[in-house]
Structures are given as C-alpha cells and as structure tokens.
Amino acid sequence: MIGKEVKSTCSYCGVGCGVVVKKNAHNRIEVEGDKNHPVNKGMLCSKGMNLHYVVNDTSDRILYPEMRWSRSHPRERVSWDDAMNRAAGVFKSIIRKHGPDSVGFYVSGQCLTEEYYIANKLTKGFLGTNNIDTNSRLCMSSAVVGYKKTFGEDSVPGSYDDIELADCFLIAGANPAWCHPILFRRIEKHKEENPEVKIIVADPRKTDSANFADLHLQLLPGTDVILYNAIGRQLLKKGLIDKNFIKNHTEGFKEFKDRVMELSLGQSSKLCGVPASDIKKAASLIGRSKGFISMWAMGLNQSVVGSDKNFSLLNLSLVTGQVGKPGCGPFSLTGQPNAMGGREVGGMANLLAVHKDLMNEEHRKEVARFWGVDDISPKPGYTATEMFDALEEGKLKAIWIICTNPMVSLPNVRKAEKALKKAKFVVVQDISHKSDTVDLADLVLPAAGWLEKEGTMTNSERRISYLEKHIHPPGEARPDVDILCDFAQRMGFRGFNYNNTEEIYREYTQMTRGTNIDISHLSYDRLKNEGTFQWPVPEYRHAGTPRLFQDKKFYTPSQKAVFNIPVSNGNSLTKPNSEYPLILTTGRIRDQWHTMTKTGKVARLKTHYPDPVLEINLVDAYLNNIKNGDVAEVKSPSGTVRLRAKVTENVREGVVFMPMHWGKQLNHDLNRANNLTSDRVDPLSKEPDFKYTTVSVQKFRKK
Ligand code: SF4
Questions:
Q1: Is 609 within a domain?
Q2: Which atom number of ligand 1 is nearest to the Cα of residue 13?
Q3: CA–CA separation, 632 and 644 (whole Å)
Q4: What is the predicted ipTM?
Q5: How far apart (Å, rounded) are the C-alpha atoms in residues 92 and 477?
Q6: For 343-353, what is each residue's pLDDT tens digit?
C-alpha cells in the first residue's frame, strides 16, 4: 500500500538494525533507518541503505517450481502440486530403502525463527533423523561451544547498550568497521566522546577496525590462543585479576593458571609475532579497565582450533571478573541476521530446541513429548561439511538446501560440488537464480524473500524482532514455512496444519516455558506493538533481559563459570613449507554480503571492490615477481584461483588475503576463494578453517 510504513529488521548481518519501509508513488520500496530502534537509532550501513534495490529488482527471482525428471534433461516449469508430490515421493522412497539417515536438510542463518523451528521439527521429530545443519556452522559454532562450556548454555551475556558503558574493547578476529558497521559506529562514537576509552584489535591484517584502534596486535594467523594466554599470564603476573569473582564464581582457575604459565612472555611473543611490549600493554589496558568487552567473529571461530581460541578469549573475561555487570562481557558477533534464532530452536545437527541437549535422554523425551512423537534419534546428525562428505560416500542420498549457497561458501568447494553432483536428489529452496547451488538442483522451489513473509529473528544481543509482510512475493513464490508444512503433510505427518505463522511462533514459545530462554509471554502482539525484546521474557509484563548473569549464577551444574583449557596452541596440522610457503586467510569486504546473491545485484555496492583481489605483502610480492595489478595464480592442495594482486602493507609478510564472496556465476570458477581452503574442521565445533590455508603464489603467465 502506497505510503504505508512498516517496521522491519535488516536482512543482512547479525547487528539487527531496524528499518522503516514504505512504497513510493511509483510502487517502489524505499527504506530508511528506524530512528526509534534501540540498535541503530536511525543509522544504516552501505548494505542496509541499499536493501530496497534488492527488493525492487526481481529480474533474478525464481518465480515458479522447476523440476527435471533425470540428470540428462533440463529443468522445466512444473506446478506446485507436481513439485511437492515429487519431493514427498522421492523422500519416502529413499527413506524406505535406506533409512531416515539417508536424507538431510541444509538450512541457513537467514531463515526466520519459525522456518528454522519447522525444519527442525520436521527433520528430528518426524523424518526421524538429526541430519539438519545450517550454514551458521561455518561462522559461529565455535562460539556456541565456548559459551556452552564456559557458562553452561549458549548465552551471550550482554547487550549493545554495554558498549557505551565500557572503557576497554578487545576486538579479536573481527573487522566490525566493515562487517558489523553500525555496531562499530557506536564504538567509534563512544570513543570520540570519551577519549579515555581504549580499543585493542587483534588481527593478522591492518583493517579499518585496526587502524582506528589504540593498539593493533598483528598476530600471525592461527596463534590466537598463544596471544590470549600470554595476556592472561600478564594479568596474573601484575595482579590485575578479580580474586573474589574467581574464588566464588568460577571453576578451573588453577588449570588456567598452569596453562598460561607454560610459555614465557618472550616465547609467546616470538610464536605469535606480537611484540612483548604490546602484549604487556594489552594486559594493562584490559586489567585496569572498569568495563572490558571482548568482541569476536570469524577470525576466532573459523579455525581448526576455533573452540580453543574461544576458550582462551573467554578466560580473559573470567579472570578479570568482567561478566554480568554493566559495560562488560564477552560478545560474539553473528554474521547472519538470525544465526542466534537458529541456535534457539536447535537448528543444528547436534542441538535440540530451546537449548536442550541431543545427548541427554530426558531432553530427547521432553522434546518428543512436546511434538507428539515416539522418540528423537540419539544419533547426532551430519554437520555441514559431514553432510557433503556423506553425499560423496553415498550415505546421504537426498539433500534439501534452504536459503544458502554452499557451492560458494563451503570450504574445499570443488570437492563439495562433486559430492552434490553424486546426490540422488537435490532440492534447492531459494529466492534467486544467482545462487550457484541452484544450477545443481533436481527440484527448485521458489521462496518468498525479505518483506514478502512474516516471522521473527534474533540478533547478536538476543534481541527478538518481528518482521511484517509488506509485499506479495513475485510469481508463485511461497513463504518457506508454507513449503515445509506442505511437504510434511504430503509425507503424512500430523502437526503441520498451522493456519498462519503466528501459530508456529506460539508453539515454539510454549516450548521455551521454564527454560533459560523463556519467551512464553512474548506474543506477536507485544512484538508488533511494543517493539523488540531481549530473551528471556519469562512473565507477561516483563520488559526483556538486557544482561544475563547479574546474580553471578551461571547455567552450569555448579552455577559457576568454567575456565576451559585450550588443548592446542595453534594450527599444528599444517605449516607453511617450500611448496606452499604462504598462509591464506579469507574474509569479507565492506559492501558485499556472503555470496553476493543479493548485494551483487546493486551496482553502487560494486564500486568499492568490482572484483576480488589478492592482498599480498610488498616483500612476498617482490620475492614472487608480482607487481600491483598483475594476475596472481594462487595454489593450495585443494585447488587454484587466479585474481589481480593488490600489493599492500595491510597484510604481514608470509600472509595473503582474499575475499570469499565471489562464485562461478558472478565471475568464474577461478575466483572462488573456497577452491583453495581445506575441509579440516575444529574437533568440537565442527567449524571449518577459512583462516589458515597454506598456499603458493606466482605471477600468472598465459601459455
Ligand atoms: Fe544491516 Fe548489519 Fe548494516 Fe545494520 S550493520 S544495516 S544489520 S548490514
């Protein structure tokens, strides 16, 4: 409706900025930042400001179901009825022949909570397998392990409002200036108004975040544990610790102390490549601060030692007693708008809904009772990379991919591509033909996108927002929950005949009753009328919970927070060698988001980086006879890419950087960063390592 304003939440990163949307006289969508939203107070970053272009341009949209009867035939338009009957028929047949663990769902941190909930209920409760995982596995599962083992549950303690109350920030393995810009703008403003506020950035690259910092710890890739343990050692040495908090509210301090004392300051400094004086300075800033916040993202999580990196960083908050008070706390930044909501409903292969534990028999029974099914399988499902390994091995026969583009985002992507081609049946449910994954689907289902459906999301600070439907989806596209419930009913399952999305939300919120994430009193009406809320919201008039653990009672059996001891110091599996002498780290650029299926449509967002470039240090460029703008050929044990070199001092000697966004469709196969990455994962979180791949680089010469 022209002129009618609706409030929504940005569909990109986990900051969760509020936007006001309306249609202009030409029936085009316009967006602006919501001045009354507690997260962004009217601000939007370059991606958020251009959301309307993505919605208004429907040229790439999937408009109707497409199906192929065999791999030798092209896909053709079919009716929804034919498409859904085929999906149900094939799934039934595969399950009958090979059992429930032969099918799986691969979903996304962009799914709304209701969609995540239904996909999880369908898979774990009714299909009888735990083979549902999410692309959030690729970005934050190490943080989940960190929180669970430290606090007893996957619970972010603080709020963005703690930013303005803190006086020291350690931004670790993150570049919020580009990847969480509105959050970073709040930090910048806070520092501009309070020059005594100190910012430390730990990153192998000189990023915009690092350039703004008071102290940049430019560590060698993979040595984070050594660095944070060295800071911990220094805090102990200088007595900059909270003895009362440690004694009364933590476990494992002795083991922590023993571990951080293993290496001298000099040894740590040498191993992580950070001057000892800078380690001392970081410890002094952290230890003397009144409010210390650590913020981290993929630089810590995406690693074969991602859980260890999380432990070592979380330990700094425990040893300084900086948890559960205003202006402090560890704070993981989620990369996707609803990665947190997915965690709440248990949308991962090893989780159950409402923070219940798949390995706990009583929890499985409780969830089964709630859904009205006999039982939940005790066998953990395949995680993201395991799912593609299982396709390769023929154990997984059918995969249903929702709202994600693994043919760009998975590590060692050529291997994953081969695996997907081996699948007996691939369903892709998405909005855009620009996804490389759509090309490999046997059945393509057109889904409704942002503003075309209703539902809820949770941002990085546990803030739940309601997203209103504002426009009709194009063509025959349908909301994801409609598609999933339709499929479930064609499979013959009870419990999926909801009248609307609100009924799904209500069912989920009743499941949270009495848990630590209780939102059983948070209705759609309250969200629509009163705005956003941070969970838990356990009573009818409850205003939400900005800060957890203010009573210093944690969710562990002893109610104490736990110092977890990192097992390893670094990426010991691979080291640079004569064949692959450099370390590749991949990441994001300011104006693109994930695999560019949305931001890649916006011309003005391409001006910042029209094409991917390889950042290479002056010395390495000289040694490899590469000049700025040359085409460099980068090789790893997994594959090859070719792209222009950008000779820069922003990366240190021995390290190269490449953005991860580009896939085959947007350029060509040789620009895909994940041709190079390995599929090694962290043993606890099963999160892959996108931050440490040994590579060789040489100037490309056409033969
Ligand atoms: Fe959207 Fe994130 Fe930018 Fe906010 S910071 S406008 S949520 S992309």
A1: yes
A2: 2
A3: 6
A4: 1.00
A5: 24
A6: 999 999 999 99
